[in-house]
Specification:
By secondary structure, the protein is an alpha+beta fold. The radius of gyration is 56 Å and the shape is elongated. The protein has ten helices and 34 strands. The strands form ten sheets. Strands 22, 23, 24, 25, 26, 27 and 34 form a seven-stranded antiparallel β-sheet that branches. The protein has a six-stranded antiparallel β-sheet with strand order 28-29-30-31-32-33. The chain has a five-stranded antiparallel β-sheet with strand order 9-10-11-21-12, with helices on both faces. A hairpin with a 3-residue loop joins strand 15 (319-320) and strand 16.
Length: 645
């Protein structure tokens, strides 16, 4: 059998070739001269020495044998007629390389559409070009070829639920959230192949998979003191008919009490006479009321959240039996959860910016809330009550009105910058009756009301006790060591004998007595727990100047004898005692004082003078030079530092 070496194109030589090869071996052949074999260039004459080495007709070298007619280099040699090996191909007629063989007559193989080879102009194996069109390629071989959520079946991509085919033929996630699939206020979060419904801020999941909501931002703040300003879900009436809504929660103003703000925008909220019921009803449908600005800072926060000045607030005229509805902001009150509450609209008692005008003028009914007039901004607006009318419509701001300034003392209120218009109980601005809560909203002590004096001796003074000119609070009266307030509803500076929760609860660093035309301020020992603890103890000396005491009564022709000058709390001598004040004597000792300035006097009559409990007994008949005076006294306290954490 004949073999071909890869990379070579050689033929076996006939006899003549062998002779030449032998001769070269004997005599030597030039290295650069090729060896020409018979039949190599002339078509292989005589069939390569009559058929080459193999004997017999048709044998190797016979006609048609290797190197025969048409053999390598012969007629029709490689690429010539008969192809490689000549006619009859290698080894004889019909042999390898015969007619039509490689390189024989007809040249290269003609492509067909059935030869199992991609050739010619085919786009694939036996398809495309001149052949039938190629079948489309498969979409996929495995699931990963179809993208996330894809399934490959018989070369075709399909998508799992929650996915869809894109234009590129791959599965992509479907975002279900734009179709609002979650109930109520629940928040939709898109997930691969689905979505999740979660409770919004302010809500908590229940066992049934729904959400429960607190009633207000104040409750959210109480449950989570770290809660920040922002939007929260609330349900103002709990299990009532009002729906849960999203509210803006102000968690920082006024010390972070948690103000709730819900704005309703509705073109049906019209202007004109008798329009107010629609505004009140819009808030009632949410379980809320017309909002009440509780302080100056709260009003500024509301303006910012509303995007401009308010148009109607839940502030109404008080009714006075002597002349009907009130006139001026100090005769109006907020209505918070159906109860009277403090509010703020302006630094003055006038809610108008008209020169010489005075609004609100109380000319209407107690059912008419204050509305803003379109008369310029006037700071927070120009306000009046107008027979249930509304001048600026289209929206209303609502709130549960369950939160308000929560200072623990008047010093706290001063530090917080609170300003209120407490109805009927103050002149203007910061002085007035505030609601205080000594131990904060989470403590066991109940909030209470007290007068705050913010413009005397640095401000921050909380009224603890007051005595009327003809007071019953003698030195030995039980009020001084009593454990419950007395006549505490008389919260203003009017005439009464009263003792307040502040007397019992507030830590005390300083005390101030206001009487007549001035005041005396004294320091107390650090850590003094309350004014009651002071009065329940023994004598506590203070060090105010003698003339500070006298200056309270000097303009009223009061006076004090020159000697003794024992002062402080629970001052006790042989003849006279005073709870807070100073004793004077015409003699050079304190054994028989005849004069005093202060409150809680024991009321002994000396030198024929009348017995005075609150005011100034000048001892005129025992060397005193001035008149004795009955005066109201106001005992204020101030702690060392604000209690607000």
């Amino acid at each position: 059998m004949l073999r071909r070496r890869r990379g070579a194109s050689r033929k076996f030589m006939g006899f003549n070739g062998l002779m030449v090869l032998a001769l070269c071996c004997l005599t030597g052949c030039p290295d650069d001269d090729p060896i020409f074999l018979p039949g190599a260039d002339d078509g292989g004459a005589d069939g390569g020495l009559d058929g080459g080495m193999d004997a017999g007709a048709g044998g190797a070298g016979a006609e048609g044998g290797m190197g025969g007619a048409g053999g390598a280099g012969g007629m029709g040699g490689m690429g010539g007629a008969g192809g490689m090996g000549g006619a009859g191909g290698m080894g004889g007629a019909g042999g390898m390389g015969g007619a039509g063989g490689m390189g024989g007559a007809g040249g290269a193989v003609v492509p067909t559409c059935e030869d199992g080879i991609q050739n010619g102009d085919e786009a694939g194996v036996d398809c495309g070009g001149a052949c039938p069109a190629c079948p489309p390629p498969p979409d996929c071989v495995e699931n990963a070829d179809c993208g996330e959520g894809g399934i490959c079946t018989d070369g075709v991509c399909a998508c799992e639920e929650g996915f869809e085919l894109s234009e590129d033929g791959e599965c992509v996630d479907v975002n279900e959230c734009p179709d609002a699939p979650c109930p109520g206020l629940q928040v939709c979060t898109n997930l691969p192949g689905g979505f999740a419904c979660d409770c919004p801020a302010g809500g908590a999941p229940t066992e049934g998979g729904a959400c429960s909501y607190l009633a207000s931002c104040r409750q959210i703040k109480a449950a989570n003191p770290a809660a920040a300003d922002g939007e929260y879900a609330i349900d103002a009436d709990g299990d009532g008919p009002a729906p849960a809504v999203m509210a803006m929660c102000d968690m920082t103003t006024d010390g972070g009490v948690g103000y709730t703000v819900v704005k309703v925008v509705d073109d049906a909220l019209a202007t004109g006479p008798d329009a107010q019921p629609a505004y009140q009803a819009a808030c009632a449908a949410l379980g809320m009321e017309l909002i009440v600005p509780r302080s100056r800072d709260h009003m500024q926060s509301l303006i910012a959240l509303n995007g401009g000045l308010l148009n109607i607030v839940g502030v109404y005229p008080d009714v006075r039996e002597d002349r009907g509805p009130g006139r001026g902001l100090n005769e109006f009150s907020g209505r918070c959860q159906g109860q009277r509450c403090d509010f703020w609209l302006a630094d003055t008692n006038n809610g108008s910016c008209l020169d010489g005008g005075f609004e609100p003028n109380g000319n209407n009914t107690p059912e008419s809330a204050l509305v803003r007039q379109p008369l310029g901004d006037c700071g927070s607006g120009s306000w009046d009550d107008q027979l249930l009318g509304v001048e600026i419509g289209g929206f209303v701001v609502c709130s549960p009105n369950d939160a308000g300034p929560a200072p623990r003392s008047c010093l706290d209120a001063l530090e917080l910058g609170l300003r209120i218009n407490p109805g009927g109980r103050t002149a203007e601005g910061q002085n007035g009756v505030y609601q205080l809560d000594t131990d904060g909203p989470d403590g066991p002590l109940a909030p209470y009301e007290a007068w705050c004096q913010q413009d005397v001796a640095g401000g921050g003074w909380t009224l603890a006790l007051k005595t009327q000119a003809d007071s019953a609070f003698r030195y030995d009266h039980p009020v001084w060591t009593h454990d419950r307030p007395v006549n505490e509803r008389a919260t203003d500076l009017g005439i009464s004998d009263s003792m307040y929760a502040s007397y019992l609860q507030l830590p005390v660093h300083q005390a101030m007595l206001r009487m007549g035309d001035g005041e005396v301020v004294v320091d107390l020992p650090p850590g003094t727990p309350s004014m009651r603890s002071v009065m329940a103890g023994g004598y506590l000396e203070t060090h105010a100047g003698r003339f500070d005491w006298i200056n309270m009564v000097a303009d009223r022709m009061g006076g004090l004898q020159a000697n003794c000058n024992a002062q402080g709390f629970n001052v006790d001598s042989a003849l006279r005692r005073v709870r807070f004040g100073i004793l004077g004597n015409n003699e050079p000792d304190c054994s028989s004082p005849d004069s005093f300035i202060g409150i809680g006097h024991s009321a002994e009559v000396a030198c024929g003078d009348v017995g005075i409990i609150s005011g100034n007994n000048a001892g005129t008949r025992c060397g005193g030079e001035r008149a004795s005076l009955r005066l109201q006294g106001y005992l204020f306290v101030r702690e060392a530092a604000p209690q607000q954490p």
